[in-house]
Design goal:
Radius of gyration: 17 Å
Helix content: under 10%
Distance between the termini: 35 Å
CATH superfamily: Jelly Rolls
Order of helices and strands: EEEEHEEEEEEEEEHH
Largest sheet: 6 strands, antiparallel
CATH architecture: Sandwich
Number of domains: 1
Length: 197
């Protein structure tokens, strides 16, 4: 494997949340890359078992989020098949040292980047191109009873969205601010085993 291009992990300011750059093989005909390979992703610290995969299409200016599930949290591996999105993860785990902090990445059909969002984080994105087709693989099935959200423009979180007046669903427009969410409706932070020693 020496000398061969390797799958690349780029850590963000939020522990566990990372950008992944796949190895893309391209020529005049087009390109090919592995959007997931369990062994290779394990080698960069992502040991995920996906049980549901979703695709959504959104117009320019659409903002979806900030969404999460509790209980039955979902880890998500997200990417863009067409267009460009600004993708955001927010740590909403009770007791986390980075509670209320966020990280973001620009995901595009051209850069082929993915964002890994572990369980316990809220997720959202906004479309900055004419339209975008978005794919997300999830570690738990969608559970309507566990579906929850946090307001996209919560000043206490302070996300620097690249759109001033986004197109929102009624659910997202009226989602509670993080401080308004009852403690038992938020994920719980569990310190890594090495940190507990």
């Amino acid at each position: 494997m020496t000398g061969q291009p390797q799958l690349k992990r780029i850590d963000t300011d939020l522990a566990g949340v990372c950008v992944i750059e796949p190895v893309v093989h391209g020529d005049a005909r087009g390109y090919f890359f592995e959007s997931f390979h369990a062994g290779k992703y394990q080698s960069i610290g992502i040991d995920a078992h996906f049980v549901q995969s979703n695709v959504s299409r959104s117009a320019q200016g659409v903002l979806r989020g900030l969404h999460y599930q509790w209980p039955h949290p979902q880890g998500k591996l997200v990417s863009v098949l067409e267009g460009e999105v600004y993708d955001v993860a927010v740590d909403i785990r009770r007791g986390s040292p980075s509670f209320g902090r966020w990280a973001a990445a620009m995901l595009t059909a051209d850069n082929h980047r993915q964002l890994w969002i572990p369980e316990g984080f809220a997720h959202g994105f906004c479309v900055v191109s004419g339209a975008a087709t978005f794919m997300y693989q999830c570690t738990a099935l969608y559970d309507p009873a566990a579906d929850a959200g946090v307001r996209w423009n919560d000043a206490a979180i302070g996300i620097d969205w690249p759109v001033a007046a986004p197109l929102l669903s009624a659910k997202d427009e009226t989602a509670p601010y993080l401080a308004e969410v009852p403690a038992d409706r938020l994920p719980v932070y569990r310190a890594p085993a090495s940190a507990a020693l």
